[in-house]
Amino acid sequence: MSTTPTKSLADDASQVLRAVTLIRLGARMQVLESEFPKLSRDRLIRLYREVKGASPPKGMLPFSADWYLTWAPNIHASMFANVYAFLEENSKELDRVDLLSRAYGLYAEHFEMQNEPLQMDLTRAWTLVRFKEAGMLRMVGCKRCRGKFVAHSQDNNHGMVCGICQPPSRAGKTKASKIAQQEGATIQAKAA
Ligand SMILES: [Zn+2]
Hints:
Layout: H1 5-25, H2 29-35, H3 41-52, H4 71-90, H5 96-113, H6 122-133, E1 137-141, E2 148-152, H7 175-191
Antiparallel strand pairs: 1-2
């Protein structure tokens, strides 16, 4: 049975609007091609140019799973992952694109309110979700604050202490660590 023209038109419009939302938030072509298989590559490129006023950057995504485990990125990635998991658990009607754009929006708003530069763009956030789905990364509880943090799946993470409870010495007295402590409270609250 073929879909009515009206329905496919509405579906198409909705796909385009969702793609525009992701482009605004910083999605690169790989993200768009993967999440919107119904929209052609040419169309996605035209949308990208329209929204950003420039051609999409070429080349593969350079991100490795290790990036998420370094200090400041880990705090940011964990914050995002906690919000994502919370929305996924509590808003069953949201699909992955919705989850991604909402969780990323909340993550960005939170750190922008603290005047803290964002460590992750939307493409990195998307890659994190993919790595978790592929079983490369998982969430592990910190034994001190009990917040949940992004960790390697194959590591033995028993007794893990997070980067907020135990910041590296170079971060000791910086503004970042003060903010990180506030983040700790937020992440704990979300994990509770
Ligand atoms: Zn901790």
